[in-house]
Every structure is written in structure tokens, then in C-alpha cells.
Amino acid sequence: MWRRATSFSHLLSSSKSSLLSPASYGPKIWETLSTEVSKQPGGGFFSKERTPFITFVLGGPGSGKGTQCSRIVDTYGFTHLSAGDLLRKEITMNSENGAMILDTIAKGKIVPSEVTIRLIRKAIESTENDKFLIDGFPRTEENRIAYERIVQIGAEPNIVLFFDCPEEVMVKRVLSRNEGRVDDNIDTVKERLKAFRSLNLPVINHYSNKGVLYKIDGTGTQDEIFERVCAVFDAWK
Ligand SMILES: Nc1ncnc2c1ncn2[C@@H]1O[C@H](COP(=O)(O)OP(=O)(O)OP(=O)(O)O)[C@@H](O)[C@H]1O
Ligand SMILES: O=c1ccn([C@@H]2O[C@H](COP(=O)(O)O)[C@@H](O)[C@H]2O)c(=O)[nH]1
Ligand SMILES: [Mg+2]
């Protein structure tokens, strides 16, 4: 069983984040989500019998989240759930929301919380492992609040990793990724960086204020970065 590390001296700044008021994100999503929650015996995703160890992995586009997640999986036995990959799979499967997701990703915007959370939930429920890396989620304060409301028991992540990387480094990495992603072009990258700054940094600050954020220098070689990651996980074993 993983335990909480006792020293948090390496945690990030404590700048305050501003929470959105429920009125600002509209009633419809809450109707949908609370209906889903009430269908679940015991409420949210998890129960007292099953409360997995959750790590959120955050950082700007190209900060190295996916790359480091693969290595964490190999070394620490987590299951990796990339919210972006789950959404891209919906596009390739031509699902009900596929066209909307493609349009949103191509513009560098954020897919509605109910869609992303449903995919994450399905992936968690179909996995027996009890240690998850949730990569690239929550993207916004609205995502985070929606996740907390629907998950209920064990909603708070045990760890949040933030790969901190200068924008010019991230842009260079994304533009040389060469995986055929519809959003790996300079115009969309600019939009993704804007979304990261305005929507994701408040989430990161929220977790910093909660004392669960580990800020990792995302520059240098993949090996150097992984050493910094290991220092975090080794403190939890
Ligand atoms: N330390 C590194 N040095 C140089 N290139 C790297 C490093 N880490 C990752 N890369 C490369 O940079 C690109 C982006 O990395 P990765 O896909 O892991 O980022 P990401 O944070 O998951 O991005 P996105 O949010 O766009 O999915 C990949 O081509 C990857 O191989
Ligand atoms: O929670 C999420 C995660 C992702 N998106 C959309 O997908 C792209 C790509 O995500 P990556 O994590 O970089 O693979 C992102 O720019 C968003 O458009 C999302 O809406 N919500
Ligand atoms: Mg990625």
C-alpha cells in the first residue's frame, strides 16, 4: 500500500487560485452527472472497498507527460490513462461524439467535462489495477470540480505531477513529434498554450494550495527528467 510522503518541502508556490462559482458552469452538466452518480451503488466511481491511488499528470503541450508516464508504468506498475488518447480513440471509432471531439481538438479547445469524465470512468472501471496515472486531466477548474462531484469517495488525487517546461521547448517538441496529430501545428499549438495558461494553471495552483503538487523540471533529457520523477514516487513506496 502506498503511503503519503511526510515531507512536502519540494512542493510548488502557493499562489491562490480562483474557483468558479457553480452558477458559472451551467446546470445541464450537473443534471447529467448527478443522474449518473445516483445510478451507481454507493455514489461515485469508487467505494470504500475500492479507492485507487490516483496521480494526475499535468503540464503544457509537449512538456513530456506521455513520455514520462510510459516510464512510470514500467517502473511503478501504474495503469496509464491519457485523456487525450481516450478522446482521440473516440474520433477513430467514429463514435457519437467523434466529430465534436475532432473539431474541439483541432481548435485547441477543451471537450465538455461530461464526455471526458465518462471515458475516464469507463477506463477505470474496466481495469483491475488500483494505481492510475491520469494524463492531461483535469484541464480546467470546471473539469476538476465536475470530476470531484461525480467521483465523490477518493476524489482527491494522491499526487499531482506538473512538468514545468518553457514554452519554446514545448513548441519545438510538439512540432517535431511527427505522429500525425491534427493539433500538432503552430496555429493550434498557440491555442493550446493559451488554454494551458488560462485554464490549466489555475488547476495546478489549486493542487499546489492543497499540498499534493510536485513540480518537476521538464527540461533536459528524458533520463534526467525520469530521475526527478522517481524521487517523487520513491518517497511514497
Ligand atoms: N526530455 C525530452 N527531450 C526531448 N524530446 C522529448 C523529451 N521528452 C519528450 N520528448 C518528445 O517530445 C514530444 C512530446 O512529448 P510527449 O508526447 O511526451 O508530451 P506530452 O506532454 O504528452 O504532450 P501533449 O500534451 O501534446 O500530449 C514527443 O515527440 C517526445 O518524444
Ligand atoms: O481532459 C482533456 C484532455 C484533452 N483534451 C483535448 O485533447 C487535446 C490533446 O490532449 P493531450 O493531453 O495533449 O493529448 C487537448 O488540446 C484538448 O483539445 C480535452 O479537451 N480534455
Ligand atoms: Mg500526451
TrEMBL record:
Presence of the UniProt keyword Nucleotide-binding in the record: yes
Q: TM spans, by residue?
A: none
SUPFAM superfamilies (alphabetical):
P-loop containing nucleoside triphosphate hydrolases
An example GO biological process term is: 'de novo' pyrimidine nucleobase biosynthetic process
**Where does the record place a coiled coil?**
none
UniProt keyword Kinase present? yes
**Pfam families tied to this protein:** ADK
Q: Which InterPro entries match?
A: Adenylat/UMP-CMP_kin, Adenylat_kinase_CS, P-loop_NTPase, UMP_CMP_kinase
Q: Which reaction does it catalyse?
A: UMP + ATP = UDP + ADP
Which molecular-function annotations from GO does this UniProt entry contain?
AMP kinase activity; ATP binding
Q: What is its EC number?
A: 2.7.4.3
Task: Provide this UniProt record's keywords sorted from A to Z.
Answer: ATP-binding, Cytoplasm, Kinase, Nucleotide-binding, Nucleus, Pyrimidine biosynthesis, Transferase
Checking PROSITE patterns in the record gives:
ADENYLATE_KINASE (PS00113)
Q: Which family does it belong to?
A: Belongs to the adenylate kinase family.
| Protein name in UniProt | adenylate kinase
Task: Tell me the lineage of the source organism.
Answer: Eukaryota, Viridiplantae, Streptophyta, Embryophyta, Tracheophyta
